[in-house]
Amino acid sequence: MLLSIRKNTHNRGSNGPLPLLHESSTLALVARRQYPRVSPGRPSRPSQNPSPESVPLSIGERVPAHVAIIMDGNGRWAQGRGLEREEGHVEGARAVRETVRTSREAGVRYLTLYAFSVANWSRPRPEVAALMRLLADFAEKERKELRERGIRLNVIGDLEELPTFARRAVEEAKAYTADCTDMTLSLALSYGGRRDIADAARSLAVRARAGLVLPEDIDEEFFHRQMTTHSLPDVDLLIRTGGESRVSDFLLFEAAYAEILFLPCMWPEFTGATLKEAFRTFSQRERRFGLTSDQVRGQNLGRTFDPLDSSEA
């Protein structure tokens, strides 16, 4: 189910107020509190001591088991404040830390972050180099806290394509947190949803040609086991920041029934309070998975249609 935002003509490169989801929504009110108007020529950063508890979750509200986030808007956030794009990525790392902590505290079991896509290799080399340094820095400095919080680090995508120093830092962090079981943090690195699907299909074709798998053995679950996301369940909530309304080749197979929330804030502006409001919005959605509302609510649980049953005609 798509959770849409109200469109307007806001210039995302400006320092004006953020566009809102709906004027009366709580998420919009949170946005107004956290992202005040910035005076021209005065760089502004989010608070260095944000409070994830500022918007507490109520008892009985459903928290999604698997949350996936497209962290968009770092560069535009920086450019809108007269900073270099790399400064936006540095500030985005702070948002990552707060998001991880808030997710763990809220009871999320799987958090998947779109850290670096296959398409991102086409960005300017200095920016790519800065992103790789930030990745290595995150893996080296955060692994102790991840372990203390019971968070296992996982990677989807092709880790082998990363520079050696970044790959080693991530591999060491993965090994250091391997026995953690409370939450899985997956970083999508050199990842593309289409490529992951194509690679899985190629792997199955090779095995079928060798007689190791039969066509009738292949179903959705079997296919998923060939993908780099094989250890992850389907996505429950997909969030994208940055004001764009597309999924950009992220978890195309796994997010088939995800609730999707497009937010107008840039990623450095994303806080624990924003995430909790997203959880609250998710908990208010009715997830039907092809059923009717009556079926979901248990009011009409009669037998389903059988196309081979002549009595249905």
What does this structure look like?
By secondary structure, the protein is of the alpha/beta class. The protein has a domain of 214 residues: Undecaprenyl pyrophosphate synthetase (3-Layer(aba) Sandwich). The chain is 36% helix and 12% strand. It is built from 9 helices and 7 strands; from the N terminus they run βαβααβαβαβααββαα. It is globular, with a radius of gyration of 21 Å.
Summarize the structure in short.
The chain has helices at residues 26-34, 74-79, 85-106, 125-148, 164-176, 193-209, 220-224, 272-283, 293-296, and strands spanning 2-3, 66-70, 110-117, 151-157, 183-191, 237-240, 259-262. The protein has 313 residues and is an alpha/beta fold. The protein has a domain at 73-286: 3-Layer(aba) Sandwich (Undecaprenyl pyrophosphate synthetase), CATH 3.40.1180.
The CATH superfamily of one domain bears the name Decaprenyl diphosphate synthase-like
Distance between the termini: 31 Å
Main beta-sheet annotation: 7 strands, parallel
Q: What portion of residues is helical?
A: 25-40%
The mean pLDDT is 83
Cross-sheet strand order for the largest sheet? 1-7-6-2-3-5-4
Q: Class by helix and strand content?
A: alpha/beta
Order of helices and strands: EHEHHEHEHEHHEEHH
The CATH topology of one domain, please? Undecaprenyl pyrophosphate synthetase
Q: How would you describe the oligomerization state of the chains in this entry? A: single chain
Offer a few descriptive terms.
Undecaprenyl pyrophosphate synthetase; alpha/beta; 7 strands; 7-stranded parallel sheet; 9 helices; 313 residues; 36% helix; disordered N terminus
